[in-house]
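JOB MANIFEST
job_type = single_chain_structure
chain_count = 1
residues = 194
[input]
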Amino acid sequence: MGLPLRDQHLHTYGEYLTWPDDLRYELIDGRAYAMSPAPTRQHQEIVGELFSQVANALHSHPSRVYVAPFDVRLPRGGEADDDIDTVVQPDIVVFCDRSRLDERGARGAPDWIIEVLSPGTASHDQLLKRDLYERHGVAEYWLVHPGDRLITVYRLLDGAYGKPHVQEFAGSLGPTIPDGVQVDLDLLAAALAD
């Protein structure tokens, strides 16, 4: 089951900017998907732990890490911002190319996206957004499964995500980009134990 649609119309980022701030949406190919209500405490514990570890690892690095809500605009080509029809708010994003960052968030694909799954967003993140990120060239996409204590990692190779790597919350795991980042998965497991 996917996230509910706002309506049956196609929308752009220009329209998205006029919508009330108290309602959050993501635009994917013009379709406005209503974001889930406030995430669970468990979801926030995992996002907080991951963000903390990645931010600490990137402290002296030129790459930048952001946590939702943070608008990532994914243009099809060179269209003006107001005409972009895809805007997502991943849980955590890392940009190595800082030229993609601006005051509104970012324009262009991040190098690394992490989504923490919840029952209301799991199919959306695993199917629709996985295909979207592959199409836009996101180098690495992590899906964190708190209930199963697993991470599924998709890495872009020759323009496509190959067979995913799946790892339990044990040991450590790092992305291919940026270099030098390792996530302590034992700390993720500990965050769920509290």
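[summary]
The longest strand covers residues 150-157.
The chain has one domain: 38-193.
exit_status = 0
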